[in-house]
Amino acid sequence: MVSDFRKKKYVHVFTTFFDTNKSGTIDKKDFDLSKEQIAKLRGWKAGEPTYKILEDTLSQLWEGLQGADANKDGEVSVDEWVAVWDNYAKNPSAAAEWQSLYARFVFQLEDGSNDGSIDSEEFSSVYAAFGYDKAEAVEAFKKLAGGKAKVTWPEFEQLFKEYFSTDDVNAPGNFLFGKTSF
Ligand SMILES: [Ca+2]
Ligand SMILES: [Ca+2]
To answer: What residues contact 33, with CB distance under 8 A and at least 6 apart?
Structure first.
């Protein structure tokens, strides 16, 4: 049974980063909109290799997400989304391929300078590009990084697991998606 706390965290990622057109469900159209938002943020144009990589990664994520569509209606509902992450929480090391890909994708997206770590500005500017409050993301980064200037990939990978699996309200991983309180 999923706790209220974890459910709120899952719904935050659903609403802010997956249901980008705010229709109440996740479908292919959300991924098309994400692609445009990310390409705009990075200045990538259709036909460029970076744009193609983005396109391929998003289509792999969308394909992987089909496993979450329990009633096979072509959309992932909030309940279906919560169910897959509740399942993930039972054993994060047995994550589905798309869940691991998603972790890597978020890290690479946020590591705008591509130096293998994320700083506060990189972190918060990605959240701002998704229409999220930048100041809150800056606060969240402080808590996430525990006062350090940067978060590396091995740290990020752990924080990602923590975000989706922990019920500890004081865990730093809770701040991975830019929100300071649930
Ligand atoms: Ca949607
Ligand atoms: Ca569905």
So the answer is: 20, 21
